[in-house]
Design goal:
- This protein is an alpha+beta fold and 97 residues long.
- It has one domain: 2-Layer Sandwich (Alpha-Beta Plaits).
- Helices cover 27% and strands 34% of the residues.
- It has three helices and six strands.
- A four-stranded antiparallel beta sheet has the order 1-2-6-3.
């Protein structure tokens, strides 16, 4: 699997920002077929940081009611919680090494 296709985009929420500041854990949206090993290898090669752990969560499809009883779907996706070994290192997800 290609390195650039595994990592799709960072997830920026209040919870993710708190994890980033306190525990140096980053939340990233990843490809649905990626494994923990693929995610770890791609981040290490693209950004040059050491990773302590990778946790994966599969989100479910959610329904939302709109106007005039329309139903909208939010597609399911996979996200990864990536914890760095050294808390002094920072992971800049916008730029690639």
């Amino acid at each position: 699997m290609r390195l650039y296709r595994i990592i799709q985009k960072p997830i920026i929420t209040e919870k993710a920002s708190a994890l980033e500041l306190n525990e140096s854990t980053y939340v990233i949206k990843v490809d649905s077929s990626a494994t923990k090993i693929d995610i770890k290898k791609s981040i290490q090669e693209l950004y040059g940081v050491e990773i302590q752990s990778v946790r994966i969560v599969n989100t479910r499809e959610k329904m939302k009611h709109g106007r005039r009883k329309m139903q909208m779907k939010r597609r399911p996706f996979k996200k990864a919680y990536v914890t760095l070994k050294d808390s002094s290192q920072k992971l800049d997800l916008i730029s690639i090494k």
